[in-house]
Amino acid sequence: MTSINDDTDEVVTKLPIHYSNALSPNVHIHQFPLLTRPLQAPPSSLASGKRITARLKPNVRRLEIHVPSDTRPEVWNAEKAKELGAARLEDDREKNQETKGMKSVDETRLSEVRMKSEEIPQRGVHLLGVVRDGCLHLHPISETHQLRPALTYLDILSRKSKRSHGGFDSDSDDGPPPDPDDPAPLPVPRKEKKSTGEVKEIQVTARKSDDKNGLTGPGALSAVRREMLHAIRAEEDEEWEPLEFCDVVTAESGDAFEGVFSQTSDMLQCKTNIAAFLKEINGL
Amino acid sequence: MSSNDPPSGSTPKAIGSLAKKQSDVTRQGTQKLKFVPTLPQRRKKEEVKAEPTTSVVPAVPSTERGRGRGRGKGDGRGRGRGRGAAPPVLEMTASGPFAMGPALAGSTGRRSTPRSNFTPSVPTALGASAALGVNLSRSAAPSLKKENNADAKGKGKAMEEEGEVYSDPDDGVEIIDMERIRDMDWMAPESLQNERQLKKFKKEPSEGVAGEVDLAKALDLSESEEEEELEDIIEDFAAPTEIDTDPTLREERLYFFQFPQPFPTFLPKASESVADVIMGDATDKKVTFAPDVMPSVTPGTSRTSSAVPTELLMTEPLDGIIGELEVYRSGAVKIRLTNGILFDVSAGTQPSFLQQVTYLDKENKRLCVLGEVNKQFVVSPNVDTLLAAMEEADNAPVTIEGGENLIKMDG
Question: Which segments carry the region annotation Disordered (chain A) (predicted)?
Answer without folding.
Answer: 162-201
